[in-house]
Amino acid sequence: MSCRIVVLISGSGSNLQAFIDTLHGQQADIVAVISNRADAFGLERAAIAGIPSAVLDHREFADRASYDQALAALIDSHAPDLVILAGFMRILTAGFVQRYQGRLLNIHPSLLPKYTGLHTHRRALEAGDSEHGATVHFVTEELDGGPAIMQSHVPVLADDTADTLAARVRDTEHRLYPLAAMLYVSGRLRLEDGQACLDGTPIAPCGLRLDQFEADTRGHVHD
Description:
This protein is of the alpha/beta class. The chain has seven helices and eleven strands. It has an eight-stranded mixed β-sheet with strand order 3-2-1-4-5-6-7-11. It has a three-stranded antiparallel β-sheet with strand order 8-9-10.
């Protein structure tokens, strides 16, 4: 049976498009796209791909808890095996996170644990970092603090601005996120006793390196 995925978005949906291009209808099925904003361009991406979508506007709810309760009910109506946060700009309540523990993934534009929260590219530049990147992780109650699964790395160039650095990181996200999700879909990736595990072995706290994982995979194909 194909893995059923629900994707949550708030904006352009570029990572959603990466999932549509690499996973949808192949290793898994995106059964719904849900946005908290009616003007999210990702909804058009879903429509073009023939994927059902819905808008659940957080402004129509009295508080975060009532919104998350309604969101969970909408998600559950699609019976997903995996829930993907793809630029979903909401801080989730503990109850919501616990409901989907072990099957809720997020991508964050920094090399976690560095730079949780917003403005990660500017903060990396201000700190004088030599490299930057993105991290896919399991979602826990701690903001951007769940166990890391995989990271992409890009060099920080002397003439970088926050925008140029963001664009370069975003390019790697479109390989990174679907690959990490594919490990879950294939049954190789799981959250066990609070640790991200690949093939039953705990992953290092900083996660797998995308470039090394891709190189190892190519090597196995050629063997």
